[in-house]
Amino acid sequence: MKTILSTVLLTFFFLIFVLPITSYAKNTVNPSILNTHIELERLRFVNQTQDGSVKRALRQLYSSQYADIERPYKALEVVEIAARESTPHEEQFKGDAHSARAYALMWRITQEKAYREKALEIIKGWAFTFKDFKVIKGYRPQKYLESAWVIPIWISALDMLNRNAEGWSATDEKQFESFITKLHRYSRKAHRDNNWGTSAMLADISYAVYMQDDQLYYQQLKKFRYYLAKLTNPNGTLNADYLSDPWHPQYTIIGLLHTAEVADNQGDRLFNITFPNEKVPRLQKVLAHFTSLFTGELENPKGLKKGNYKGAHNNKQGYQIAFNAYSKGKFEQPWVKQLVDSWNPSNTSPLFMMWDRITHAPEIVGSNMLNNEKLVIDN
Questions:
Q1: Which of 156, 163, 358, 374 has its C-alpha lying 20 to 30 A from 100's C-alpha?
Q2: Would you give the distance in Å from CA 298 to the centre of its chain?
Q3: What does UniProt give as the signal peptide span (predicted)?
């Protein structure tokens, strides 16, 4: 009996005084999805850019259906969805989220009040109306993935707006929290060892930052390392989806890039994670490998079931964030400029936040454009 008691006491002492204690105390920075407050303030100057690619992106934004102030929106109580195909309800749901975010971005750029009012109208419309999903065809867990895709877009839209200003009340805030929490109950079930998992992680970290949930936030830092190790290889290839087509692997990459950017805005540098016996950050190795595929320097991998990797990045987003992360400091490599120079996106994926060529333009994240303040990218 004495031996058992001594063992218990020693174990207790070890747990309390020897093992490191995980602290979840963190003052979460808002806004940060995907931009900080100072970056959002700088957006009013982006029209002054001399960068041709940013000018082109601005023209695309201004002519986009999502930024059209006359675009009709329709909040639905029940959103009918299907696995592996789009439904009118799904297109409305995602489209309205993108429009809210595009209007918020247009408000930041133009300072025109009508854009802010329209963004808030859509956000409140859905927050007060939406009740649930209904899977009408195929895999029932599809609603988990649909929720994971849309959560960051809705939160980012609200992140861009000044919630302390006219038109947004405490009641609105509470209802939006309820709306996002309802979606998060589904998205947290989307974790898989493929692109579903990185989308779920992005939804989780966005939700954690918005809700000031420090424990959930730190769990996603661990999840990032897990998915980076599980889904990628030291040579930059992917384990899941790599041979299926050129777009599902990019969903994985975008999920990793956006998650790392949200964490970076909180002061946690996930872009530079390395693994034992590797000197170069794993995410950089992935991006370098896929740059070679996108530019045609590497041929399609043997066994690719459909599609062509060459030029496949031109309908996907996130690569301006990659450029910003790796274009400075000790990890700078020629592929970084090659990736962005060969990247000419027009219509990007509706599954993730768009317009990073604008929101993360050099004038926004790296120049003295506002009050002589400069954002340091390498934390």
A1: 374
A2: 28
A3: none
pLDDT, tens digit, 9 for 90 and up, residues 245-283: 999 999 999 999 999 999 999 999 999 999 999 999 999
Integer CA distances (angstroms), 354 to 94, 105, 186, 199, in order: 12, 10, 23, 15
Q: Specify the number of domains making up the chain.
A: 1
Entry pTM: 0.90
Q: What is the CATH number of the domain that holds 131?
A: 1.50.10.100
Residue located via tokens 């999840």? 223
What pLDDT shows up at residue 179? 98
- Enumerate residues 6+ apart whose C-beta is below 8 A from 115: 69, 103, 104, 106, 107
**Cα–Cα distance measured from residue 124 to residue 103, given in angstroms and rounded to the nearest whole number:** 14
- In sequence order, the β-bridge partners of residue 82 are 85, 137
Residue 372 lies in a domain: no
Using CB atoms within 10 Å of the CB of residue 131, give its burial: 0 to 12 exposed, 13 to 18 middle, 19+ buried: exposed
pLDDT tens digit sequence for 226-254: 999 999 999 999 999 999 999 999 999 99
